[in-house]
Each structure stands twice: as structure tokens, then as C-alpha cells.
Design a protein that fits this description.
heterodimer, A: alpha+beta, Fumarate Reductase Cytochrome B subunit, 2 domains, two-stranded antiparallel ribbon, 8 helices, globular, disordered N terminus, B: alpha+beta, Sulfite Oxidase, Chain A, domain 2, five-stranded mixed sheet, five-stranded antiparallel sheet, 7 helices, about 30% helix, elongated
Chain lengths: ~300, ~260
């Protein structure tokens, strides 16, 4: 567990010394400065509440979305697309009979063997059955399109209302302009390159720099909030035959209902990718401090390292 | 003080947090399955259907048309879905003589119950529309449909003041059963019934409607999903409520958990 960090990097209020079984292996040089445990109020109540509601919605939207996808695990480009049309992505079960099933995923003509996960995966009795995504990834776990749709549309309403509240508070509290918009300094190419290099070395900002988001973090948040999530909502609505009659230009924007369905699927994958990177970064930056800051709002600024 | 000793609590908290998250996640997911099997909870989720229908009805109040495509957009193959050959005796008899003495029944809350022959139907003003068919499963197919606007037929019969819905009784048993509960049916309210693109189609892509696609007539209600597009329509029944028909939800698939308003 990050034992290479210098000792003065940790909070000093831990009553750990009395439990120490042995004396320090070497004399600790007197620190040049006593580390100060600086706590800042990082996340407003609105951001914290909408963050966790958003996590709840996106998790269940993803899983119920995969349930809906499983009803027809093929994706197309264009206005139409069905069994006889060329699929861009498809998942299918292969094999001569149910005892010899295999799962295959085809992406743009390239076939991948995905037995056990995509195309064919374990049913309730652990034998392989034809399924797009496996049981553990879908809501409900068993095949039920009607119930999957109920979950998906109920949560979609909650997701959109929660998102609008977040946007409202974000504008009103100047959260976007103050916290998420990159500064003039941050968008200099040299700074961006340095930030990329820091990320590659898994080096996280400390001290004053840790009080604001770094530039790659800002880009990622802005892309998710103002591009990926709105595209999710709009491509979702484009799949609605009723909404298409109200806003027909959505069909032109995304290139047809089937293209919208494909973009909806790809965007969902990008959200999963974002969440994975986000969670890895939370662990790297200090999981307790980060999660606490999103619950209580208070964030312990990692002190500067003084060699 | 050394980092090692100081970090011990941090490590255990981290392990606890991870284990806790996994446990809560696991419980939540099996809980979701339980909830999905509870009729009460699924109905609660269904409350969003009312919100969706309300929002779409508000947005659709100016009665915009669903997009109509050009002949070059038509799907090379239109997948017939559901029943493709009703086994019903009366249907088979009508089919064997080309529906020449078959009549569409119009009854219920109407002033003049009608029996409309194919010849009479085709003599009425027709509408042709090339539209997209969206299956609830996710696929789409485009085809051209020609038929009579449902509103014209309803006007000809004359609606009684308490008329609220049109129920479409079909010839096919999608789920063969002894008690007739597998018989296909659908229903629309008058908002959709009188929409200009709601037609009783007797031709598809310029050809007489083939049996797999619902001969002699099928309903086209653009702006809603495929299961509303009832095939093999034999009888229109105008009603004030549909809770006594079938299992009471207004359609074959509605009785099996799908939304009555299928605009999304």
C-alpha cells in the first residue's frame, strides 16, 4: 500500500504511535516544517446528492439497458435494421445443438470468440444459453424485456430530473465556470503535456494544486456532463417513435433510429470506461479521503512533499 | 513515526470499504431481481409510463406526422413478426376465397354497426405512407402502407358520446390456448385513432397485404411500437373501457407486461 510515500505525507492526527510494536528502524530526520492537516470544503451538498443519485441511476440504467439490448443483440447504422440487414455489432450463439453452444461477437466484420460472456453464457442451471450479455450484467438477471423496459424508463426520468437539478445548481453556484472550466494557465499545451505525463506516472497533485481539478480531469468531467450524458438522453429519445414525430431533426442529427441505437450503445460503453478510470483514480488519489469528500464534502488536502 | 504503522488503519478501512461495497452491490442486485418479480413493484415502476404518455401527448398535441420516407429507403426484407398464418377456421375459409366475402365488423358504441367488404374499403379514399416500423425488441424496418384512415371508418359508423377506445380484434392466436386468452388484440384511444396516419392498411409496398404481414388488413399507428400494429384485424369494437377485455390491459402484449402507450 503506497509504502514508497514519505512519512510526512499522511495525516498527523492518527493515534497510531501507541500501537506501534517496534521502534522506528532508523532515526527520523526532524521535519523541516510540521505538516499541517488542511481540510477544505470541496463538494457542495447539491453536487454530493446528485452524484450518488446519478451513480444509482446510471448503474441500473446500464443493467436494464443491457436487458433491452439482449432482446435483439444486433446493432446497425442507418434508418432501419433487422435480422436480414447487415449488422455493425452482433452477438450470437453458435453450435450444432444446445449442448455445444459457443458465443461469438462480431464487430465491423471481425469475429471474436466470447463464450461465457457475450453471445452465450450461463443460464440458471449453469449450462450455456444464447444471451447477448450475461445474467450478472442485466436487470433483471433473467430474460424479461417488459420488466427491463419498466426499470429503464422509470430510472431515465429520475436520471434526467437529477441531471437537470445538477445543471441548475451548477449554473447558479457557478460550479461549472469556477471548478470545471480549465484556467487559461491549464490549457497551455505545455501544461497539458505535463498533466498527461503526471497521469502516466500516476503522480497526483498535492498541496495548493490538489485544491482544484487538474486539466485532464476537467476535460473528462466536461465531456461526460456536456457531451456523453446528453448524447445518451438524445439517442434514447431518438429511438422513441413518438418523440421522433415531435423532433424529427434528431433522426437527421444521428443518422437514423438504428444509428441512434448504436450510438446509445457505444456511449454507454464510454460511460463505463469513464467510471472505471474515475474509480481507479479515486483509489490512486486516496480512496477514503475521496469518498469522504463526496459524502461529507470535506477533503483533506494532501500536503506538499518536502524532501 | 513511520508510514507503515500509520497506514495500518487506512488499509483496514480500505479493505472494509471494498468488502462493504461488494456486499451491498451483491445484495442490491439480488434485491433487484426480487423486486422485478414483485407485481406491486413492477407496477410502481410502471407509474413512469403515465409520465411518459403525459409528456408525449403534450408534445404531440399539435399532431405532427411520423416521418415519411422515400421509396428508396424501403427495407429490402421486412421481417414478419408474431403470427404468420392464423389457424382460425373462419380465417382460413375467408383466405381460401381471397377475402371476397369477408367483412370488417364495426360495432360497440357506434350509431350504425357496419360490415365493410374489401371492395367497399378499397373504394374509400386511401392514404399511402412509407414509414418505419419499430419493434419493441429494438429492430426497425421501413415499408410503404396503403389503406383507409381509421377516422373515416369511425365517422361512417358514428361514435356514441361515451366512446373512448377502439379495440382491434384479430384472427390470430399468438399463444395457442383453449380459453382464447392467446388471441391477439389491441386498443387505441381516440387521439391516436383519429390521427391522419392511423390507417387500416390493405396493401404493402404496392402489393396486396400478404398473409405473414396481416392480410386482409392490419392497423398502422405510426408513432407507436410494433406490437400496436395489429395484424389480421377482423373487428373494430368501440368501447368506453377495456378492463373487461382479455386480461384487461388493452392488448395481447399489454396483458403480458408491456406498456399500453407504446410511444417509446
Amino acid at each position: 500500500m503506497s509504502m514508497d510515500e514519505p512519512s510526512d505525507a499522511v495525516p498527523v492526527d492518527e493515534p497510531a504511535l501507541e500501537t506501534a510494536p517496534e521502534p522506528p528502524p532508523e532515526p527520523t530526520p526532524a521535519p523541516a516544517r510540521k505538516p499541517v492537516r488542511e481540510v477544505i470544503y470541496r463538494h457542495t451538498l447539491a453536487v454530493r446528492v446528485t452524484h450518488w443519485i446519478n451513480l444509482f441511476c446510471i448503474t441500473l440504467l446500464l443493467m436494464s439497458g443491457l436487458q433491452i439490448f439482449n432482446a435483439h443483440p444486433r446493432l446497425y447504422w442507418g434508418q432501419y435494421g433487422a435480422d436480414h440487414d447487415k449488422a455493425f455489432i452482433e452477438m450470437m450463439a453458435t453450435g450444432s445443438d444446445m449442448d455445444h453452444l459457443g458465443g461469438v461477437t462480431k464487430i465491423a466484420g471481425h469475429a471474436f470468440k466470447t463464450t461465457g460472456v457475450l453471445g452465450a453464457s450461463a443460464g440458471t442451471d449453469h449450462t450455456l444459453i444464447p444471451r447477448g450479455f450475461p445474467r450478472w450484467a442485466t436487470l433483471p438477471s433473467f430474460q424479461d424485456l417488459a420488466v427491463g423496459r419498466r426499470w429503464h424508463f422509470a430510472l431515465a426520468w429520475l436520471f434526467v430530473i437529477n441531471g437537470l437539478i445538477y445543471l441548475g445548481f451548477g449554473l447558479q453556484s457557478r460550479h461549472f465556470s469556477r471548478d470545471l472550466a480549465p484556467t487559461r494557465e491549464q490549457i497551455r499545451p505545455s501544461h497539458i503535456l505535463k498533466d498527461i505525463w503526471d497521469h502516466m506516472r500516476l503522480k497526483h497533485p498535492r498541496g495548493e494544486e490538489a485544491k482544484s481539478y487538474n486539466v485532464l480531469q476537467k476535460f473528462a468531467y466536461l465531456a461526460v456532463i456536456f457531451l456523453l450524458l446528453p448524447v445518451m438522453v438524445l439517442t434514447g429519445l431518438t429511438m422513441s417513435p413518438g418523440f421522433d414525430a415531435v423532433v424529427p431533426w434528431l433522426l437527421d442529427l444521428f443518422g437514423g433510429r438504428q444509428s441512434a441505437r448504436t450510438i446509445h450503445f457505444i456511449s454507454a460503453n464510454l460511460i463505463v470506461l469513464f467510471v472505471l478510470v474515475h474509480v481507479v483514480e479515486v483509489f490512486l488519489a486516496g480512496v477514503v479521503n475521496e469518498i469522504r469528500s463526496m459524502i461529507t464534502g470535506r477533503y483533506v488536502v494532501p500536503p506538499e512533499i518536502h524532501p | 513515526m513511520t508510514g507503515l504503522r500509520l497506514r495500518r488503519p487506512d488499509f483496514s478501512r480500505r479493505a472494509l470499504l471494498t468488502a462493504g461495497t461488494l456486499a451491498v452491490g451483491g445484495l442490491a442486485l439480488s434485491g433487484c431481481d426480487k423486486l422485478s418479480q414483485s407485481a406491486g413493484f413492477v407496477n410502481t415502476l410502471g407509474a413512469a409510463e403515465g409520465l411518459t404518455m403525459g409528456a408525449q401527448r403534450l408534445l404531440l398535441s399539435a399532431k405532427p406526422l411520423a416521418r415519411e420516407f422515400s421509396p428508396k429507403d424501403i427495407s429490402p426484407v421486412f421481417k414478419p413478426n408474431g403470427s404468420t398464418m392464423p389457424s382460425d377456421d373462419d380465417y382460413q375459409a375467408a383466405l381460401s376465397n381471397g377475402f371476397s366475402d369477408w367483412k370488417l365488423q364495426v360495432d360497440g358504441l357506434v350509431n350504425r354497426p357496419l360490415g365493410i367488404s374489401m371492395a367497399q374499403l378499397k373504394a374509400m379514399p386511401s392514404r399511402t405512407q412509407i414509414t418505419r416500423h419499430d419493434c419493441v425488441e429494438g429492430w426497425s424496418a421501413i415499408a410503404g402502407w396503403t389503406g383507409v384512415q381509421l377516422g373515416r371508418v369511425l365517422h361512417a359508423a358514428g361514435l356514441k358520446p361515451n366512446a373512448r377506445y377502439v379495440v382491434f380484434h384479430c384472427a390470430d392466436d399468438l399463444e395457442p390456448s383453449l380459453d382464447g386468452s392467446g388471441r391477439y388484440y389491441e386498443s387505441l384511444d381516440l387521439v391516436d385513432a383519429f390521427h391522419p396516419q392511423t390507417i387500416l392498411a390493405y396493401a404493402m409496398n404496392g402489393q396486396p397485404l400478404a398473409v405473414p404481414h396481416g392480410a386482409p388488413i392490419r392497423l398502422r399507428v405510426e408513432r407507436q411500437l410494433g406490437y400496436k400494429q395489429a395484424k389480421y384485424v377482423m373487428r373494430l369494437e368501440v368501447v368506453d373501457r377495456f378492463d373487461k377485455i382479455g386480461s384487461g390491459k388493452g392488448g395481447f402484449w399489454e396483458d403480458r407486461g408491456y406498456e399500453w402507450y407504446a410511444g417509446i
